[in-house]
Design goal:
352 residues
Length: 352
Amino acid sequence: MELVPPPLIDLLEGQEQGGCSAKLDPKELHKILADLPVPHSDRLLVGTDTSDDAGVYQLNENEALIVTTDFFPPVASDPYTFGRISATNALSDVYAMGGSPLLCLNIVLFPSTQMPLEVLREILRGGQSAADEAGALIVGGHTIEDSPVKYGMAVVGRIHPRQVVTNKGVKPGDALILTKPLGTGVLIAAHRLGMAREEDYQEALLSMQRLNRYAAEQMTQVSTHAATDITGFGLVGHAMQMALASGVELHFESSAIPALPGVRNLLHEGCIPGGALRNRRYVEEHLHTHASPEETLLLCDAQTSGGLLIALPEEEAPELLRRLQDNPNTAQSALIGVASPASPNGSTLTIW
């Protein structure tokens, strides 16, 4: 990642929320979507019914397309950094399914009467850097006048139809590995409030700029049963979707959860973003926690460009973890839990 000059403008000035924490309340969104028709096709390998990261459409016997999109308001003052983070986040859905990004379209909402167009150029340059690293081509996009600025991508990836990784395949006894530390939502909020140490916030920015490419490449080398990327619904929200789709219960050891520097202290000091509280409400009917309120909220924190949650046979977990921890991009990967048969009491998530 290249060094960037001082920002042309502070994108966070006057910004109330950014990144994946700007998502709609997942509980309310679920109600709205419940009555909409679910698409069906013999070629649609993954649709909307299992809350997966992207759609998958089979072209022929040997190739399928992964289709996804994501965009949000700024999480960084610097336009280039914001552009790279947003593009990295959009590309992540393809990696979560074990695929390779192929084509991208820019999505831009920009207030051209309030900001110099050079700011937009830097945002797009940051997005281009992430696409280049992913080996994907940006082939166009769409822009509209809007405030505040928002940026993201629609992404098309490719994969063999028999190699698609979804969130539906978790089996009892599987180990659960997380490939990035949690806490981006906390640090973004704390930065706005002047509570975060600058070096801790910068570490969050670096984490959000790291592609999940290497994690995806490694998980496809073992018998991965399921995976998802951890973004706006927090670890608990995405894990709940995985558990419900797979018919299992997931158990997390709170002390094993990796967190970005300073995040646990900020939670103890009362820095609790609204996204974490929304995610806590989203999973409340399915969650049983023995952890402290602060540790529970860490798992609820809305992540921007978070890591992958990977479920695989317990005997293969040590080797995958070794490979991940040997690479700088995934060095903080950790074994954080296990899967068990579905609980008779209805809970799908347990935090210890």
